[in-house]
Design goal:
Shape: elongated
Structural class: mainly alpha
CATH architecture of the largest domain: 3-Layer(aba) Sandwich
CATH superfamily of the largest domain: Response regulator
Largest sheet: 3 strands, mixed
Number of domains: 2
Helix content: 40-55%
Number of helices: 6
Strand order of the largest sheet: 1-2-3
Radius of gyration: 25 Å
CATH topology of the largest domain: Rossmann fold
Length: 150
Amino acid sequence: MQKKVRLANPQPYHHGDLRRALIDTALELITEEQAWAFSLREVARRAGVSHQAPYNHFPEKQDLLSAVAIVGFDENDETLQGIKDGHIIGTVVQQPYEWGYQGMKLMAKYVGGDKSVIPADPIIIIPTKIIDKTNVDSFWAELKQRTGAK
């Protein structure tokens, strides 16, 4: 009796939108590690593709990082440095310490007897500011001056 041998029917690998998958994976790594220190090989491994696959879309790691468009909501040093380095497009901040300043100003008037300063909907609106490559240096300098940092 002849033995039947079934050959595996290999399914062609199809990732779909590999470029998008690599960007999403890089963003996951950035979020997890809070750093840019991963390699393209790590991105490939996490995305489930060969270590050469990312190079079809991103010849260098910097090309991948440039494609990762990040908008943050913080003014920490890492975010501001990322904007300077071009890894982060920008961040949205409320004027640092403005909420505290306006709150203290309001409370001083309130304690002084002026009850009319309390808004009917108890909300203090503090405008936001977009920080990007065009204004990151001046914003960072102002932030350091306000906090006494060097």
